[in-house]
Amino acid sequence: MKTFSDAWTIAKMKSIPDMKRNPLTIAILLLLTGGMPLTFVYMFGGAANLPGGLVGAFVSSAPALALFASAQDINFDNYTKLRQIFVSKPIRPVSYVLGTSLSSLIYSAPGVVLFGALLLQRGLFTPATAVVAVGAMLLGWVVVSSMGFIVSGYLINASPYSMNAIINIFAFGMAYLTPVYYPASALGSFAWLSVLTPISAAANIVRTLGGLAPMDGLTVLSLAILVVEGLLFTLVFVARSRWREE
Amino acid sequence: MAEAVEVEALSKVYKSGTQALNGVTLNADRGQLLTVIGRNGAGKTTMVRILTTQLAPSSGSARIMGFDVVEEPAKVRPHIALVPQEAQTNQSMSPWDYVYYLTKLEGFSSTEAKSRSVDALNQVGLDGIARKPCYSLSGGERRRAIVAAAIASNAEVLFLDEPTTGLDPIIRRQIWASLRNMVEKGRTIVLTTHLMEEAEMVSDKIAVVDHGMLVASGTPNEIKGRVKAKARVVLKGSGGDGFSSYGELVRLGDREILYLDRPEDANEIISASLSRGLSAEVSPVTLEDVFYKLLGGQTE
Prior knowledge:
The structure holds 2 protein chains of 2 kinds.
Chain A: H1 2-21, H2 23-45, H3 50-80, H4 82-87, H5 93-121, H6 127-154, H7 160-177, H8 198-209, H9 217-240
Chain B: E1 5-13, E2 19-28, E3 33-37, H1 44-51, E4 59-64, E5 67-68, H2 73-76, E6 80-83, H3 95-104, H4 110-123, H5 139-152, E7 157-161, H6 169-184, E8 188-193, H7 196-202, E9 205-210, E10 213-218, H8 220-224, E11 231-236, E12 247-252, E13 255-260, H9 266-275, E14 279-284, H10 287-294
Parallel strand pairs in B: 3-8, 3-9, 6-7, 7-8
Antiparallel strand pairs in B: 1-2, 1-4, 4-5, 9-10, 11-13, 11-14, 12-13
Helix pairs in contact in B: 3-4, 3-5, 4-5
């Protein structure tokens, strides 16, 4: 129980004061994770592609932030020595990791709510499919968080500037290059590639739930691979997680 | 009952080959303030990091409140709190946020964490600005927030790695008072510092480390007793060369420090100085003088 209450305290510590004092950050995050890509979708794809774009904004808000939180935030904690303070407290590493991930979820909540509400309002979601869609989005969030923690484990001593650059490249690749804001069918015979990266796999599922893509092998494969990736990356991360340095 | 801190032949060689600690043995009793002093790179921070379960030693052992830092880190952690060297607060947090959340992580209820946070923030003089975001505070105020978080903890052993660096003398003394109050209440403090006045003022025991080795340890008076000189004369203006027969003469630009082996020579030197137009001030040797002498006065 303490593991979860510590995680929740860390999540609040890493999100609430910042959101309270810098509300504009939320607006900037909304612009980056949804506003900007949707503008391009509308400009180059027209209104017909907006629902698909909204799905992209909905599924990528939390995972994209999770990537920043899990890698960049931990690197920043190392830099500010907050990590050292945590290590010297009766906190388990898993609480720290979970708390850091949850902070990204708190941060992305306004975006998830906004884009989810727009999808509901446009009739793409019913309350029931919305719940499943949130589940798919959370699965993507779990996989991306674990991936970020594994990356941060390897780059624990990298400068915050290097980490920033690396994570931005990762985030760009996972949220914008892969079929998140556009349908996997646009890749033609390479559509199967979309199941490999977590955010595009989650987008495949949510697109099907919204009636924007057929329920086919790609959807099933996306779900299966998301679950497998979730388990695999979490296990790898847990096996690698440790407080003490050698 | 086990001592609060027991360090036995502790060594650390980093992967780079740097030997940061080389067989250090020392201890601190419960309710004692142990200050570790040494030059930059002497191994002080490495020792603190090993004792706070962050870094694995290469050899030797260390126990906190009877628990081994390598074998039983989970049992050590509830007993310790740390102020790391060069720690920084998140700019968006207020001192209150910083102290409250970290205190909550000690396992206190919200009510208890709030009350301890208020008390700790008062002790470091941040009560009036506790709710202001750290980006609007000075470096010293932010540093005090970090110290307050350690004070608010329930830890029996506090590790403070240069906690007063960058603080003004008034606040520094306020923190010294807090440290001594905690020691009086039975908490043990391991402090590292470069400020010899601080070490002399607050310590029950001092350990001098250099190049990863323990050079001396004991009470401030015992450490001062390690050198032959008992008094010093600070001469302002040049021309102290003629006094070198009285003891070692150290030049500091246009000032000279003459270390006297026999304090009774002081009167003679003052008279001679005044006749030469030099200003002279006599005082007992300070910890800083001893530190300089113990470490050979080598430049880094």
